[in-house]
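re the bet — no i am not wrong, look at it urself. input seq straight from the record:
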Amino acid sequence: MSEKASCSCEHAPLDASSSVSTESIDQPSNSPASGLDTQRLALKIQNMDCPTEEKLIRLSLKSVKEVLALDFDLLNRILTVHHTLSNTDIVFSKLNEIGMSALPLSDTQAISAENHAQASAISRRQIVIMSFAALAAFSSELLVWRGAANDSLAVILLALIAVFAGGIPTLKKGWIALRHLSLNIYLLMTTAVIGAIAIGQWPEAAVVIVLFGIAEMIEATSLDRARNAIAGLMAHAPETANTLQADGQWQDKPVNEIILGQLIRARAGERIALDGLVDSGHSSVDQAAITGESMPVEKRVGDQVYAGTLNQSGTLQIRVGSLQGDTMLSRIARSVQQAQSQRAPTQSLVDQFAAYYTPIVFIIAILIAILPPILGSTSWHDSLYQALVLLVIACPCALVISTPVTVVCGLALAAKRGILIKGGLYLEQGKNLQLIALDKTGTLTEGKPRLTDVVTLAHLSQSEILRIAASLEAGSQHPVAHAILSSHAESGEKLMQVDHFSSITASGVNGEIEGLRYSLGNLRMFETLNLSLAPEALKIFREHLTQLEQQNKTVLILADTCQALALLAVADSLRASSQTAVRELQAMGINLVMLTGDNAQTAKAIAEQAGISEVRSQLLPEEKLAAITHFSETLCTGMVGDGINDAPALARAHIGFAMGAAGSDTALETADVALMQDDLRKLPEFIRISKQTARVLWQNISFAISIKILFFALTLSGHSSMWMAVFADTGTSLLVVLNGLRLLRYQDSSDSASSES
C-alpha cells in the first residue's frame, strides 16, 4: 500500500478509517496497539473533562506494563485501554487512586449519544454548596475592606468555611497531583491557597479557591454544550417504530427489539426509525440529518431511506436493512465522536507548548519568591505573594482547552451540513488545499448515463448486440453497465449464460456466449485485442467512433475474436451543482484538474462545460495514483471520487473526498472526508468551515496568550492580586470555550467565499 501524505509533504498512515487517535503511555501513536492478545477496555469516567485529567491518567497507568495504549475521548468522557491483562482490576484500582471513578462502557449505555446529552456535569447540590462557599469568601473580603485585620477570628472563620465548603475537591486533586508529581492546575491552585494562608492572606485564599471552583462549574457546563453538539446528531432517531406483527396488526415496538427484514411504518410527519428500503408507498423525505440537503427527496418503492429522516407527506412501509447502532445516522455520530479524539496539528502544538510552559513559569515563580528577599530588594511577604500570583497564571488551561472544543464544534457543524470529516487533521488541512483533482463520472456528472446509440458494424441486429452486451455486463456495478442493462430490460428478453467471464479494471469485460468469445470495453481494450480489420471496415469504424465521441458520448466497442461488431454509446450529463462548485473553488485560488478513465473527447467536453481547463483522460487507477503522487510532491492536494477505481488516488491525496457517501458504506468508512450527498458545492463549504475553524482556533490561542502576557507584566509590576489572576485565567478559559461554541451557529453561503482571507 502507498502512504497518505500530510500537507507538509510528510507521510502519514494510509488507513483513513483509523480516525481515533490512540496514544501510547509515553507518546502518541498513529494506530491502536495491535497484537493477537491485545484487548480493549472501554470506560466511562464522569470526572474526566480536560487534558489535566488525561495527563494524570496516563501517569497513573504508566506503571502497568500490560497497558499498551490509551484512547482519550474527553468530550464524551470515554477512555479506551488497549491491554494484554488477564484481569483488569488493576486498571480500576489505579484510576481510583487518582480519584477517577470508572464504569465499563457497556454498563453505562454510553454508546447512545442521547445519554451523553442527558448527563449533566453540575448537580443542584454542588450549586448550593458553592453558593454558600462564595457567600463566606466574599464576606471575609468585605470585613477586611471595612477595616478588619486579615488575621482576625471572624475573617479566618469565614475563610475556612469557604475553603472547606468550596475547595475540598480542588485540594484533593492537588494532593493526588503532588503524589504523582504531576504539575497541573490543581497542584498550582492548592499551592497558591496554602501559600496565601501561610502568609496570612486568608480572604485571598478563600476568594481564589471559590472563584476557581465556580469557574470550573461554568466551564463544565459550557463543555456540556460541546458534547451535546455531537449528541444532537442522534437526537433525530425515534426510540420506537410502528411494526407489522404476525397477525397483520401494526404495533409500536422499541427499536432495539426490531430484527432485520421486518416491516416498519412511517406516517406523514413521523421520523423514520431505522435504515431500509421502501416496500410500499410514496412520499417526500427530509434527509437533512444525514445529507444536509435543504430540500426534501422523493421516495418510491425500492428507494433507500435512513433513520432519523423526516417523512413529510405519504405513508411509507419500510423493510428494515440496518439494526439500531448500525444505521447510517449511528455511524455518522460514531465517526464524529471518534474523529474528535484525533489530535489536530494545532492541538498537538499547543500541548507541546504547555508541557514546557508550565514548568518554566513554576521555576520563575520560585526564583521570584527567593531572589528578591535575598538581594534585599523586597520583603519575603511581598515576594511570596508575587510568586503565588504567578503560580495561578502558570496554568495553561485556557490555551489547552480551546483547541479540542473548537475542533469538535467544527466537526459537528460539518456533520450537520452533510460533510463527515474523519478527524481534526483533515479539518485543519482543508484550508491549505492548493489543488483538487476530480473524477468525472459520478463526481462532476450525474453518474447515471443512458444508452443513446447502438451502431452495428457486422451481421448482428441491434437487439442481438444489446442482448450480448447486457449479458456481459450483468455482474458489473459500473454506471455504464447500468445504462446498457436498463435499455435491454425494456425488451423483456432473458440474458444469456456467460462462461469464462473476466473483467479488466478501467478497460472492459469479456467472456464466452454459446461458445463464442466476446469483448466489450473502451478503445484501450479494443486496441489490446490486435484485430486485423480490412481497410474499409477500419475506416467505417473510425468514422463512427469519431462522430460519437464528438457528441461527448462514452463509446464501448463490442468485438469477437475477429472483428468489431458494434459501437454502443452512452451519455452522461453534468451535475447542476458542478459549475457553481468549480467557480467557487477557483475563486478561492484552488487549481482544478479532471482525472478520468473516459476518452479524451468526452472528458474535454465535460471539462469545458464545468469550467476546468486541465484534463487527463483514459487513465487507469494506477495512472490516477501516479498523477496524485506527482501533484502531492509540491502542492497540498485533494482527490474527489465515488468509485473503487478512485481508491488508490483517494488514499494518496492529502485529503480524499468521497462523493455521495450516504449511498456507500465503503466510502463512509474509508474516506478522509465524506460528502453525504451528490453535491460538489459541499467541497467549497468544507473549505470555508476549515478556514472558519482555523480562524476561531487562532483567536482563542492569541487571546489566551495575550492574557498570560498581560498578567505576567501586572504581576511583575506589583499591580495584580491572586483573585484577579484566578478570575482572568478561568474567565479566559470560559471565553475561549464560548468562542469555540460560536462555530455551531456559523452560517455558510456561497457569497462568503470571496470574503475569505
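see?? The chain is about 45% helix and 15% strand. told u. also Residues 682-716 form the longest helix (35 residues). so pay up
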